[in-house]
Design goal:
246 residues; alpha/beta; eight-stranded mixed beta sheet
Length: 246
């Protein structure tokens, strides 16, 4: 939202994947946001009218969810609320790449949050995809972030050992986080939805960088509990006002 009225408890409408829906919902609640996890195409336009931000995630993409994302994205554009796209596994199949481009055209994302492999796929850059993980390639995250932001006239976050945040002209970075965060399914998906909530403050690069910094700090704290206890420890860390709470 670009006005000065920040919702005290921002409502984030999430069309996310079924693998992580519960984790994402609890993470949003932990930072003081309110999730709506609705993906039925007959109601998504109505749900957007209740929301302060929209988070779209292609993790378990299907024809039905793509139709829902298109409708929700168009409604969110019309309403003028922040829209975050997580193009999970965009390089893993031709269908996923097609779906990502379809949703981008409809939702015109305020922010695309992805890994380097997904960014490369959206740019048509040669990359060795590894399922929904980042894979390997020769182009650096700095270059990918600027190029992808320029291509879609949006803001891009590329997560990795170094996080890159760009609007196509300026590049900011973030170094917080821990490698073990990639060993827990859903940490990237949760980050995308948390950033959607964070964007209800404003959509500046500095605000996004602050959100990335705080999430990384929460992750650093949570990995001390080990991989088995990480998810619960991350939710606990996110409730700490000094770490992330809105």
């Amino acid at each position: 939202m670009n006005d000065n009225k920040q919702p005290t408890t921002p409502i984030v409408h999430c069309i996310t994947n079924y693998v992580v829906a519960n984790f994402v919902a609890n993470g949003l609640v932990a930072i003081g946001a309110s999730p709506i996890m609705g993906d039925e195409e007959r109601e998504v336009e109505d749900l957007v009218q209740l929301a302060d931000a929209l988070s779209l995630n292609l993790g378990t993409v299907s024809e039905r969810t793509v139709r829902s994302m298109k409708l929700a994205g168009e409604a969110a554009v019309k309403k003028g609320i922040p829209r975050v796209l997580d193009p999970v596994g965009a390089g893993a199949s031709a269908y996923r790449l097609e779906a990502a481009n379809t949703v981008i055209a409809s939702a015109r994302p305020t922010l695309i949050r992805c890994n380097a492999g997904e960014a490369a796929a959206l740019l048509g850059v040669e990359w060795k995809a590894r399922g929904v993980d980042a894979g390997t390639g020769e182009t650096d995250g700095f270059t990918l972030a600027k190029a992808l932001a320029s291509k879609y006239a949006t803001t891009v976050v590329i997560s990795g050992a170094v996080d890159y945040i760009s609007d196509g002209k300026t590049i900011l970075t973030n170094l917080t986080g821990h490698p073990d965060m990639t060993r827990v399914v859903g940490t990237g998906c949760l980050l995308s939805s948390l950033l959607a909530a964070w964007l209800t403050k404003d959509t500046s690069l500095e605000t996004i960088q602050d959100g990335m910094f705080r999430y990384g700090r929460a992750g650093e704290r949570a990995v001390q509990s080990g991989i088995g206890g990480f998810s619960n420890a991350l939710l606990e860390a996110l409730t700490d006002e000094e770490v992330y709470t809105l």
